[in-house]
Protein backbone atom coordinates (compact mmCIF):
# COMPACT_ATOMS: atom_id res chain seq x y z
CA UNK A 1 0.00 0.00 0.00
CA UNK A 2 1.08 3.57 -0.68
CA UNK A 3 -0.07 6.59 1.34
CA UNK A 4 0.21 9.93 -0.45
CA UNK A 5 -0.14 13.50 0.81
CA UNK A 6 0.50 16.93 -0.72
CA UNK A 7 3.36 19.06 0.65
CA UNK A 8 3.76 18.38 4.37
CA UNK A 9 3.86 21.34 6.77
CA UNK A 10 4.76 21.46 10.44
CA UNK A 11 1.17 22.31 11.39
CA UNK A 12 -2.16 22.07 9.66
CA UNK A 13 -5.41 20.15 9.74
CA UNK A 14 -4.70 17.99 6.68
CA UNK A 15 -1.34 16.93 8.14
CA UNK A 16 -3.09 15.85 11.34
CA UNK A 17 -5.50 13.72 9.31
CA UNK A 18 -2.66 12.15 7.31
CA UNK A 19 -0.84 11.26 10.52
CA UNK A 20 -3.96 9.46 11.72
CA UNK A 21 -4.28 7.65 8.38
CA UNK A 22 -0.69 6.43 8.72
CA UNK A 23 -1.54 5.15 12.20
CA UNK A 24 -4.41 3.14 10.72
CA UNK A 25 -2.27 1.85 7.84
CA UNK A 26 1.16 1.51 9.49
CA UNK A 27 2.56 -0.74 6.73
CA UNK A 28 1.96 1.80 3.95
CA UNK A 29 4.83 3.52 2.11
CA UNK A 30 4.45 7.29 2.69
CA UNK A 31 4.98 9.84 -0.08
CA UNK A 32 4.78 13.66 -0.12
CA UNK A 33 5.78 16.31 -2.65
CA UNK A 34 8.12 17.76 -0.04
CA UNK A 35 8.22 18.34 3.70
CA UNK A 36 8.83 21.71 5.28
CA UNK A 37 11.77 22.38 7.62
CA UNK A 38 10.96 21.20 11.12
CA UNK A 39 8.81 18.24 10.08
CA UNK A 40 9.84 15.34 12.30
CA UNK A 41 8.52 12.44 10.20
CA UNK A 42 11.65 10.77 8.79
CA UNK A 43 9.55 8.12 7.01
CA UNK A 44 8.09 10.57 4.46
CA UNK A 45 9.55 10.02 0.99
CA UNK A 46 9.74 13.24 -1.03
CA UNK A 47 9.23 13.76 -4.77
CA UNK A 48 11.81 15.29 -7.12
CA UNK A 49 10.17 18.69 -6.52
CA UNK A 50 11.78 18.63 -3.06
CA UNK A 51 15.20 18.90 -4.73
CA UNK A 52 14.26 22.10 -6.58
CA UNK A 53 13.77 25.73 -5.49
CA UNK A 54 10.06 25.29 -6.33
CA UNK A 55 9.46 23.80 -2.90
CA UNK A 56 9.69 27.34 -1.53
CA UNK A 57 6.70 28.54 -3.59
CA UNK A 58 3.56 26.46 -3.80
CA UNK A 59 2.01 28.86 -6.33
CA UNK A 60 4.93 28.54 -8.75
CA UNK A 61 5.16 24.77 -8.25
CA UNK A 62 1.43 24.22 -8.78
CA UNK A 63 1.50 23.58 -12.56
CA UNK A 64 4.19 20.93 -12.11
CA UNK A 65 2.47 19.05 -9.31
CA UNK A 66 0.45 16.73 -11.59
CA UNK A 67 3.69 15.78 -13.37
CA UNK A 68 5.39 15.14 -10.04
CA UNK A 69 2.58 12.84 -8.99
CA UNK A 70 2.81 10.88 -12.27
CA UNK A 71 6.60 10.45 -11.92
CA UNK A 72 6.69 9.82 -8.18
CA UNK A 73 8.23 6.35 -8.12
CA UNK A 74 8.79 3.25 -10.23
CA UNK A 75 7.49 1.03 -7.47
CA UNK A 76 4.15 -0.70 -7.99
CA UNK A 77 1.43 -0.95 -5.37
CA UNK A 78 -1.85 -2.81 -4.98
CA UNK A 79 -3.64 0.03 -3.18
CA UNK A 80 -2.94 3.77 -3.10
CA UNK A 81 -4.64 6.08 -0.59
CA UNK A 82 -4.20 9.78 -1.29
CA UNK A 83 -4.84 12.64 1.10
CA UNK A 84 -5.65 15.49 -1.26
CA UNK A 85 -6.32 19.22 -1.13
CA UNK A 86 -4.59 20.10 -4.41
CA UNK A 87 -3.43 17.47 -6.94
CA UNK A 88 -2.57 14.41 -4.82
CA UNK A 89 -5.68 12.64 -6.07
CA UNK A 90 -4.11 12.63 -9.57
CA UNK A 91 -1.25 10.38 -8.43
CA UNK A 92 -0.87 7.17 -10.45
CA UNK A 93 1.45 4.44 -9.23
CA UNK A 94 1.18 1.40 -11.44
CA UNK A 95 -1.61 0.54 -13.88
CA UNK A 96 -3.30 -2.02 -11.63
CA UNK A 97 -3.36 -0.13 -8.32
CA UNK A 98 -6.72 0.54 -6.73
CA UNK A 99 -6.80 4.24 -5.85
CA UNK A 100 -8.80 5.60 -2.91
CA UNK A 101 -8.72 9.38 -2.37
CA UNK A 102 -9.58 11.16 0.87
CA UNK A 103 -10.35 14.74 -0.12
CA UNK A 104 -9.98 17.69 2.24
CA UNK A 105 -11.20 19.92 -0.60
CA UNK A 106 -10.84 20.23 -4.36
CA UNK A 107 -8.10 22.86 -4.74
CA UNK A 108 -9.81 26.02 -3.55
CA UNK A 109 -7.64 28.40 -5.59
CA UNK A 110 -8.65 26.46 -8.72
CA UNK A 111 -12.31 25.69 -8.13
CA UNK A 112 -13.48 28.12 -5.43
CA UNK A 113 -11.37 31.28 -5.80
CA UNK A 114 -14.08 33.29 -4.04
CA UNK A 115 -13.31 31.30 -0.88
CA UNK A 116 -9.54 31.60 -1.26
CA UNK A 117 -8.06 34.87 -2.49
CA UNK A 118 -4.99 33.10 -3.90
CA UNK A 119 -6.92 32.34 -7.10
CA UNK A 120 -8.86 35.58 -7.63
CA UNK A 121 -6.32 37.46 -9.76
CA UNK A 122 -7.93 37.98 -13.23
CA UNK A 123 -4.58 37.13 -14.84
CA UNK A 124 -4.94 33.63 -13.43
CA UNK A 125 -8.33 32.98 -15.08
CA UNK A 126 -6.92 31.15 -18.14
CA UNK A 127 -4.28 29.13 -16.24
CA UNK A 128 -6.99 28.21 -13.73
CA UNK A 129 -9.25 26.85 -16.50
CA UNK A 130 -6.36 24.83 -17.92
CA UNK A 131 -5.48 23.36 -14.54
CA UNK A 132 -9.14 22.53 -13.89
CA UNK A 133 -9.16 20.47 -17.07
CA UNK A 134 -5.95 18.72 -16.03
CA UNK A 135 -7.36 18.11 -12.56
CA UNK A 136 -10.42 16.28 -13.92
CA UNK A 137 -8.66 14.39 -16.72
CA UNK A 138 -5.84 13.04 -14.56
CA UNK A 139 -8.13 11.81 -11.79
CA UNK A 140 -10.41 9.50 -13.79
CA UNK A 141 -8.57 6.44 -12.47
CA UNK A 142 -9.67 7.11 -8.86
CA UNK A 143 -11.86 4.20 -7.79
CA UNK A 144 -13.43 5.72 -4.67
CA UNK A 145 -13.60 9.16 -3.07
CA UNK A 146 -14.18 10.07 0.57
CA UNK A 147 -14.94 13.69 1.49
CA UNK A 148 -14.19 15.24 4.86
CA UNK A 149 -17.63 16.91 4.97
CA UNK A 150 -20.95 17.21 3.16
CA UNK A 151 -19.69 20.58 1.92
CA UNK A 152 -16.74 18.93 0.16
CA UNK A 153 -18.90 16.02 -0.99
CA UNK A 154 -21.04 18.54 -2.88
CA UNK A 155 -18.00 20.16 -4.49
CA UNK A 156 -16.61 16.80 -5.62
CA UNK A 157 -19.93 16.09 -7.35
CA UNK A 158 -20.13 19.59 -8.84
CA UNK A 159 -16.53 19.95 -10.05
CA UNK A 160 -15.42 16.40 -10.81
CA UNK A 161 -18.79 14.71 -11.48
CA UNK A 162 -18.01 11.97 -8.92
CA UNK A 163 -19.77 10.59 -5.87
CA UNK A 164 -18.07 10.44 -2.48
CA UNK A 165 -18.82 9.06 0.96
CA UNK A 166 -18.44 11.43 3.92
CA UNK A 167 -15.78 10.54 6.50
CA UNK A 168 -15.35 13.44 8.91
CA UNK A 169 -11.74 14.03 10.01
CA UNK A 170 -10.49 12.93 13.43
CA UNK A 171 -10.45 15.42 16.28
CA UNK A 172 -8.74 14.79 19.64
CA UNK A 173 -11.97 15.39 21.51
CA UNK A 174 -11.00 13.18 24.46
CA UNK A 175 -7.83 15.19 25.03
CA UNK A 176 -9.52 18.59 24.87
CA UNK A 177 -12.49 17.60 27.02
CA UNK A 178 -10.35 16.07 29.78
CA UNK A 179 -8.64 19.24 30.98
CA UNK A 180 -7.12 19.64 34.45
CA UNK A 181 -9.32 21.15 37.14
CA UNK A 182 -7.42 24.45 37.03
CA UNK A 183 -8.21 24.87 33.34
CA UNK A 184 -11.87 24.07 33.90
CA UNK A 185 -12.15 26.67 36.67
CA UNK A 186 -11.28 29.64 34.45
CA UNK A 187 -13.70 32.55 34.29
CA UNK A 188 -14.32 32.59 30.51
CA UNK A 189 -13.85 36.33 30.19
CA UNK A 190 -12.31 36.76 26.72
CA UNK A 191 -13.04 35.95 23.09
CA UNK A 192 -10.75 33.64 21.14
CA UNK A 193 -9.51 33.24 17.57
CA UNK A 194 -7.38 30.24 16.58
CA UNK A 195 -5.70 29.28 13.31
CA UNK A 196 -3.22 30.31 10.64
CA UNK A 197 -2.78 34.06 10.36
CA UNK A 198 -3.55 34.40 6.65
CA UNK A 199 -6.01 36.81 5.00
CA UNK A 200 -8.97 34.54 4.33
CA UNK A 201 -9.09 33.37 7.96
CA UNK A 202 -10.27 36.92 8.84
CA UNK A 203 -8.41 37.52 12.08
CA UNK A 204 -8.76 41.23 11.35
CA UNK A 205 -12.52 40.79 11.63
CA UNK A 206 -12.12 38.82 14.86
CA UNK A 207 -10.26 41.75 16.44
CA UNK A 208 -12.93 44.15 15.19
CA UNK A 209 -15.70 41.95 16.62
CA UNK A 210 -13.98 42.00 20.02
CA UNK A 211 -13.79 45.79 19.89
CA UNK A 212 -17.48 46.05 18.99
CA UNK A 213 -18.28 43.73 21.92
CA UNK A 214 -15.97 45.57 24.33
CA UNK A 215 -14.24 42.33 25.32
CA UNK A 216 -10.59 41.22 25.39
CA UNK A 217 -9.53 38.85 22.62
CA UNK A 218 -6.78 36.26 22.35
CA UNK A 219 -5.36 35.47 18.89
CA UNK A 220 -3.61 32.07 18.83
CA UNK A 221 -1.57 30.66 15.96
CA UNK A 222 1.03 32.02 13.56
CA UNK A 223 1.37 33.21 9.99
CA UNK A 224 2.36 35.94 7.55
CA UNK A 225 -0.37 38.35 8.69
CA UNK A 226 1.18 38.76 12.15
CA UNK A 227 2.61 42.24 11.51
CA UNK A 228 -0.68 43.56 10.08
CA UNK A 229 -2.68 42.05 12.94
CA UNK A 230 -0.39 43.57 15.56
CA UNK A 231 -0.77 46.97 13.92
CA UNK A 232 -4.54 46.60 14.00
CA UNK A 233 -4.36 45.55 17.66
CA UNK A 234 -2.58 48.80 18.50
CA UNK A 235 -5.49 50.80 17.07
CA UNK A 236 -8.37 49.16 18.97
CA UNK A 237 -9.49 49.97 22.49
CA UNK A 238 -9.76 46.42 23.88
CA UNK A 239 -6.83 44.23 25.00
CA UNK A 240 -5.51 41.96 22.24
CA UNK A 241 -3.17 39.16 23.29
CA UNK A 242 -1.15 37.17 20.76
CA UNK A 243 -0.26 33.55 21.51
CA UNK A 244 2.32 32.53 18.89
CA UNK A 245 2.32 28.80 18.14
CA UNK A 246 0.89 27.72 21.51
CA UNK A 247 1.53 24.16 22.65
CA UNK A 248 -1.37 21.74 22.66
CA UNK A 249 -1.67 22.04 26.44
CA UNK A 250 -1.70 25.83 26.20
CA UNK A 251 -4.28 25.75 23.43
CA UNK A 252 -6.54 23.61 25.60
CA UNK A 253 -6.19 26.17 28.39
CA UNK A 254 -7.14 28.94 25.98
CA UNK A 255 -10.25 27.08 24.81
CA UNK A 256 -11.39 26.45 28.38
CA UNK A 257 -10.88 30.10 29.36
CA UNK A 258 -12.75 31.59 26.41
CA UNK A 259 -16.29 32.93 26.44
CA UNK A 260 -16.61 31.91 22.78
CA UNK A 261 -14.55 30.93 19.77
CA UNK A 262 -15.01 33.41 16.92
CA UNK A 263 -14.90 31.67 13.53
CA UNK A 264 -16.06 34.06 10.77
CA UNK A 265 -14.66 31.98 7.90
CA UNK A 266 -16.11 29.59 5.32
CA UNK A 267 -14.21 26.35 6.00
CA UNK A 268 -14.52 22.98 4.32
CA UNK A 269 -14.87 21.25 7.70
CA UNK A 270 -13.01 23.03 10.48
CA UNK A 271 -11.23 21.05 13.20
CA UNK A 272 -10.75 24.09 15.45
CA UNK A 273 -14.49 24.64 16.14
CA UNK A 274 -14.78 20.99 17.19
CA UNK A 275 -11.79 21.27 19.53
CA UNK A 276 -13.41 24.33 21.12
CA UNK A 277 -16.72 22.55 21.60
CA UNK A 278 -14.92 19.60 23.22
CA UNK A 279 -13.91 22.15 25.89
CA UNK A 280 -17.51 23.30 26.30
CA UNK A 281 -16.73 26.53 24.44
CA UNK A 282 -19.48 27.75 22.09
CA UNK A 283 -18.70 28.82 18.53
CA UNK A 284 -19.92 31.98 16.86
CA UNK A 285 -19.44 31.65 13.12
CA UNK A 286 -20.92 32.08 9.69
CA UNK A 287 -23.89 30.07 8.51
CA UNK A 288 -21.98 28.29 5.75
CA UNK A 289 -19.52 25.49 5.07
CA UNK A 290 -18.39 22.95 7.63
CA UNK A 291 -19.94 24.83 10.56
CA UNK A 292 -23.35 23.67 9.32
CA UNK A 293 -22.19 20.13 10.18
CA UNK A 294 -20.19 20.72 13.35
CA UNK A 295 -22.22 23.40 15.17
CA UNK A 296 -25.85 22.99 16.23
CA UNK A 297 -27.20 26.53 15.89
CA UNK A 298 -28.75 27.72 19.15
CA UNK A 299 -27.42 24.72 21.11
CA UNK A 300 -23.63 24.49 20.73
CA UNK A 301 -23.04 27.86 19.12
CA UNK A 302 -24.59 30.60 17.05
CA UNK A 303 -24.42 30.85 13.28
CA UNK A 304 -25.05 34.06 11.40
CA UNK A 305 -25.21 35.38 7.84
CA UNK A 306 -23.58 38.62 8.99
CA UNK A 307 -19.97 39.45 8.22
CA UNK A 308 -19.82 42.71 10.19
CA UNK A 309 -18.36 43.32 13.67
CA UNK A 310 -21.68 44.58 15.03
CA UNK A 311 -23.55 41.63 13.55
CA UNK A 312 -21.29 39.20 15.39
CA UNK A 313 -20.96 41.08 18.65
CA UNK A 314 -24.72 41.36 19.01
CA UNK A 315 -24.95 37.56 19.27
CA UNK A 316 -22.90 37.33 22.47
CA UNK A 317 -25.95 37.90 24.70
CA UNK A 318 -27.36 34.56 23.50
CA UNK A 319 -24.41 32.56 24.84
CA UNK A 320 -25.82 32.38 28.37
CA UNK A 321 -28.59 30.08 27.11
CA UNK A 322 -26.13 27.39 25.96
CA UNK A 323 -25.27 24.32 28.04
CA UNK A 324 -21.58 23.34 28.24
CA UNK A 325 -22.47 19.66 28.61
CA UNK A 326 -24.50 19.71 25.40
CA UNK A 327 -21.64 21.49 23.63
CA UNK A 328 -19.09 18.86 24.70
CA UNK A 329 -21.41 15.99 23.79
CA UNK A 330 -21.81 17.36 20.27
CA UNK A 331 -18.03 17.40 19.76
CA UNK A 332 -17.75 13.70 20.60
CA UNK A 333 -19.40 12.86 17.25
CA UNK A 334 -16.10 13.77 15.58
CA UNK A 335 -13.72 11.78 17.78
CA UNK A 336 -10.65 9.88 16.61
CA UNK A 337 -12.49 6.63 17.31
CA UNK A 338 -15.35 7.67 15.03
CA UNK A 339 -12.88 8.52 12.26
CA UNK A 340 -11.06 5.20 12.63
CA UNK A 341 -14.31 3.25 12.32
CA UNK A 342 -15.66 5.22 9.36
CA UNK A 343 -12.33 5.41 7.49
CA UNK A 344 -11.69 1.68 7.92
CA UNK A 345 -15.22 0.84 6.71
CA UNK A 346 -14.68 2.99 3.60
CA UNK A 347 -11.35 1.31 2.79
CA UNK A 348 -12.73 -2.19 3.30
CA UNK A 349 -15.68 -1.50 1.01
CA UNK A 350 -13.59 0.28 -1.64
CA UNK A 351 -10.89 -2.36 -2.05
CA UNK A 352 -13.29 -5.27 -2.57
UniProtKB/TrEMBL annotation:
<dbReference type="GO" id="GO:0016740">
    <property type="term" value="F:transferase activity"/>
</dbReference>
<protein>
    <submittedName>
        <fullName>Glycosyl transferase</fullName>
    </submittedName>
</protein>
<dbReference type="Pfam" id="PF00534">
    <property type="entry name" value="Glycos_transf_1"/>
</dbReference>
<dbReference type="InterPro" id="IPR050194">
    <property type="entry name" value="Glycosyltransferase_grp1"/>
</dbReference>
<feature type="domain" description="Glycosyl transferase family 1">
    <location>
        <begin position="186"/>
        <end position="319"/>
    </location>
</feature>
<dbReference type="InterPro" id="IPR001296">
    <property type="entry name" value="Glyco_trans_1"/>
</dbReference>
<keyword id="KW-0808">Transferase</keyword>
Amino acid sequence: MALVHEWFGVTGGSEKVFRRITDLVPHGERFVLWKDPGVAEASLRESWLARTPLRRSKAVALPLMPLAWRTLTRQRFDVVISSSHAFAHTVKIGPEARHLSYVHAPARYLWSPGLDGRGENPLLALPRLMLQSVDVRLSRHVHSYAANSREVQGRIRRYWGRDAVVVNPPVETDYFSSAPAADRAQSRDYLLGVGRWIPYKRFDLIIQIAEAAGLPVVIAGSGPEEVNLRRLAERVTVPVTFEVMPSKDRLRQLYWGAKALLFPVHEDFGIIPVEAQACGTPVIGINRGGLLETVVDGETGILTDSTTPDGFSGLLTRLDDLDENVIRANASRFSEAAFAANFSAWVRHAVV
